[in-house]
From TrEMBL:
This is Excinuclease cho. NCBIfam families: PRK10545.1 (NF007833). The keyword Transport does not apply. Keywords: DNA damage, DNA excision, DNA repair, Excision nuclease, Hydrolase, SOS response. SMART domains: GIYc (SM00465). GO terms for cellular component: excinuclease repair complex. Residues 33-108 form the GIY-YIG domain. GO terms for biological process: nucleotide-excision repair; SOS response. GO terms for molecular function: hydrolase activity; nuclease activity.
Length: 286
């Protein structure tokens, strides 16, 4: 409670002393009404303060300048830079890439996650596996992308509660042979642990629930170019194993980017999997 009070007090004080950042006006005139990524820089050339993206850079940056809750970041900012893209997809991919590489001070999301994990069925039991140990781009029957083991197990428990699955059969708690689990007596478990329902029926409900979060394997043999047409330009986004390698304007330039060793990227997967699997974007094999 004390921490919350202190936090609210600091936020109030930041808002109370907010002043429009006049020192940033020289950087505003050049901001375009185009999609792309923008960066608020501080005194350090190596550590940006904040990186964001928008379909309209100028409009989004102007909204930052009028936001009292961002007074602390704005006071530390010394300049604003930007990179335009053909459209929203390019902005999303570039933002995620830049945040991972540059680690800006005020960005909380999209940072590289070394604990990224998923659920994998092993002998009909879900187990937590980690992206640093398993190739998520090519391993079938992976489900969910979680920030850490705790998040994965919490989601598994949520599925078990919704589908009346047995914690014991899922490996979430000990199970005594020939005896039902405690939750079965409370009718919170369908009873596969004590013969009230078949293990097969239990497994079918588990698979049906996990199907909604199945991780799609990379469907191409190598890198591909995803074409995005904008108002004033075309970009070809080079992707391999759901990892964004960069963007080019001509397919002949793609070879220089494909030398990077590809590895699974959760942000790239979340951005790209639905539009690519749905065939909504033109794709060129490389």
């Amino acid at each position: 409670m004390v921490k919350k009070i202190v936090s609210h007090r600091l936020e109030f004080e930041a808002a109370a002393i907010y002043q429009y950042p006049e020192h940033l006006r020289p950087w505003i005139d050049d901001l375009p009404n185009l999609p792309g990524v923008y960066t608020f820089h501080g005194e350090s050339d190596n550590l940006p303060l904040y990186i964001g993206k928008s379909v309209n850079i100028r409009s989004r940056v102007m909204s930052h300048l009028r936001t009292a809750d961002e007074a602390k970041m704005l006071r530390q900012s010394t300049r604003i830079s930007f990179i335009t893209t053909a459209g929203e997809l390019g902005a999303l991919l570039l933002e995620a890439q830049m945040i991972k590489i540059q680690q800006p001070l005020f960005n909380k999301r999209l940072r590289k996650n070394r604990q990224l994990c998923a659920l994998q069925l092993v002998n009909q039991r879900p187990q937590v596996v980690y992206a640093k140990e398993v190739d998520f781009s090519h391993t079938p029957n992976l489900f969910g992308l979680y920030a850490n083991r705790r998040a994965a197990l919490q989601h598994l428990q949520k599925i078990a509660d919704e589908q009346q699955l047995c914690y014991g059969l899922l490996g979430m708690e000990p199970l005594t042979a020939g005896r039902g689990c405690f939750r079965s007596a409370l009718r919170r478990c369908g009873g596969a642990c004590c013969g009230k329902e078949s293990v097969e029926a239990h497994q079918q409900r588990l698979l049906a629930a996990l199907e909604a979060v199945r991780v799609q394997c990379w469907p191409w043999r190598r890198a591909v170019g995803v074409i995005e047409e904008g108002v004033d330009r075309k970009q070809i986004h080079i992707i391999n194993n759901w990892l964004y390698l960069g963007s080019v304007s001509d397919i002949a330039e793609a070879a220089s980017l494909c030398t990077t060793l590809p590895g699974f990227d959760s942000d790239g997967y979340k951005i790209l999997s639905k539009p690519l699997m749905a065939g909504k974007l033109p794709i060129v094999s490389l």
